[in-house]
Amino acid sequence: MDDSQQLPNRRLQQLDMTGLVNQNIWWNLTIMRLWASSISRAQLYVSSQHDPQSQTRDQEAKASPVTTFPKEMCMELLVDLQVSSSSKKFLKEAFSANANSPLHLKCQDLYTTDIIDHDFGQLLSLLDPLTIRRVDLNYGKIILNDVGWFLSQITTFQNLQSLKLPSFSEQEIQKMNSTPKTLVDILAAELSKLKHLREISVHSLCLSDKVEDLLRDLPCSLESLQLSFCSLTTKDLIYLARNQHSTHLIKLDLAGNKLTDQLDAFLELLKSASNSLKWLNVTKCGIKDSDFHKTLS
């Protein structure tokens, strides 16, 4: 092969390793350690290239000043993160080291069952805001005094498509509701900043007569909505039936809301969503067999 036929010099720019997080916490922890160690190994490799004879590469890598690399020399490692009390510290260190490594960790989907505190918020601030697609805090527990600050970290993720919010303690809810801006007001203001949001999950938060306040300013029509154990009223169900979201809903979770006294509004919602809806959860809603037959008629 002569020079004119030589293949171009190409470099791998992104390695997609998403989809590996599952229900096994020990597997997830192992995978998180692998991602974190990949950054430190990349730093050591660069250090060894500068001084191949060095016997103290690890020490030199830690002591070396921050190095920036040309874009063509860098590679993105696209991953999903499962953040726990065991992984939070070393993941923060790994993402803090991104700028000093030719291998850049990029998080696409983030999950946690951990306590959501300021340390967790600081980890969020280290993530690439344009890469994050999903944030699942459904099984987390928030213990922050400044919920607005935490939500402002979430809304920096401008390409976010799915947000599952954590549970809020009664003490926090009462404290926030005693201020001029209630928790629902703060949630609504921050959610309205997410231009690509298609899925919202809220659970165990009293939203009686407040669903419209929460959802009315969303830029996009929702495809998935969970409002479980939220004490929904007839007013809330009628709003859901008549707004722009109902005709786009594919998944709807209303578990834990008493629907028997507002069956007509619920049936109106089902009728409005009937052309798109594929998944429905109404467990623990008090619906009897006779009520269920009405939904099929």
List descriptors:
2 domains, single chain, elongated, Leucine-rich repeat, LRR (right-handed beta-alpha superhelix), 16% strand, 297 residues, nine-stranded parallel sheet, alpha/beta, leucine-rich repeat
General description of the model:
The protein has 297 residues and is α/β, with parallel strands linked by helices. The protein has 11 helices and 11 strands. It has 2 domains: 11-132, no CATH class; 139-297, Ribonuclease Inhibitor (Leucine-rich repeat, LRR (right-handed beta-alpha superhelix), Alpha-Beta Horseshoe). Helix content is 37%, strand content 16%. The strands form 2 sheets. Strands 1-2-3-5-7-8-9-10-11 form a 9-stranded parallel beta sheet. Strands 4-6 form a two-stranded parallel ribbon. Helix 5 runs parallel beside helix 7. The longest helix has 26 residues, at 25-50. 30% of the residues are buried.
Short description:
The protein has helices at 25-50, 57-63, 88-96, 118-126, 147-154, 170-177, 183-191, 211-215, 234-242, 263-273, 289-296, and strands at 14-16, 75-83, 103-112, 115-116, 134-136, 141-142, 162-164, 199-203, 224-228, 251-253, 279-281.
Mean pLDDT: 84
Helical segment count:
11
CATH topology of the largest domain: Leucine-rich repeat, LRR (right-handed beta-alpha superhelix)
Largest sheet: 9 strands, parallel
Q: CATH superfamily name of the largest domain?
A: Ribonuclease Inhibitor
N to C succession of SSEs: EHHEHEEHEEHEHHEHEHEHEH
Order of strands in the sheet with most strands: 1-2-3-5-7-8-9-10-11
- What general outline do the C-alpha atoms trace? elongated
Subcellular location: Cytoplasm
Main location: cytoplasm
Family: Belongs to the PRAME family. LRRC14 subfamily.
Protein name: Leucine-rich repeat-containing protein 14
